[in-house]
Design brief:
The chain has 11 helices and 2 strands, in the order H-E-E-H-H-H-H-H-H-H-H-H-H. The chain is mainly alpha-helical and 228 residues long.
Length: 228
């Protein structure tokens, strides 16, 4: 199957997941999944749906983002001891948080907003999931840098569940771009180095760093407080 045929199937509802990507001229192994359709039919298997969708949109075109997303989801699994009402919701948001980086979804170029709109408009995803993706890792501050704060706030208000919001921050900001565990401090340094201190992302992450570090401290304190 050609790349164009794969893309066509993905957009039409049959999602092809590229399971390997060897140098040279690989012949990708494609697994055809059931049509995702509207989100309502997938509520009993939220994590599987989220993983399949993220893989279909990121694995072939943004492999490093896909590696990061998988790492963030793995970190979410480590937060199972936390008293969260919906552990599956956190893990789904973790795997989907960067889906807006998929080139075909990049309408505004601001990935939290593009990803959230895609999940809402194309898949009718759960409102809490969409709002988590839209606001992950203090995205509102980056939206302000981009002149999009009112748009993001208006369409996707921040959830009031502080622990759930903090948990996604912890997962994202303690995972490297390649999906490996790291510290929040090292992650902030890496982001500034990669984008440049004067860039939109560089300015945002330096503004957000106190909030990021505070969220990480709250999550780690909550973990320590759980009975063993």
């Amino acid at each position: 199957m050609s790349t164009d045929e794969l893309a066509s199937c993905t957009r039409g509802g049959l999602h092809g997941v590229i399971e390997r990507d060897h140098p040279g001229e690989p012949r990708p192994v494609v697994v055809f999944l059931a049509p995702l359709g509207r989100y309502g039919g997938m509520k009993d298997d939220l994590e599987r749906w989220a993983t399949e969708l993220a893989a279909a949109e990121l694995a072939g075109v943004r492999p490093r983002r896909w590696a990061h997303s998988q790492g963030v989801a793995a970190r979410a699994s480590q937060l199972a001891p936390l008293p969260l009402d919906q552990q599956g919701l956190l893990r789904a948001a973790a795997i989907l948080h960067d889906i807006g980086y998929a080139p075909r979804l990049a309408v505004t170029g601001f990935h939290p907003l593009d990803g959230a709109r895609f999940l809402r408009d194309a898949h009718g995803a759960d409102e809490r999931l969409v709002r988590l993706v839209a606001n992950h890792s203090f995205a509102l501050l980056e939206a302000e840098e981009r002149g999009l704060r009112e748009v993001l706030e208006g369409e996707f208000p921040l959830l009031e569940d502080q622990l759930l919001v903090d948990a996604l921050v912890w997962c994202d900001m303690t995972t490297t771009p390649d999906g490996e565990p790291t510290t929040a401090e090292a992650r902030v340094v890496e982001i500034v180095s990669r984008y440049g201190a004067g860039s939109v992302v560089g300015r945002f992450i330096r503004r957000a760093s106190p909030e990021i570090f505070a969220a990480v401290v709250r999550v780690e304190a909550a973990l320590v407080a759980q009975p063993r």
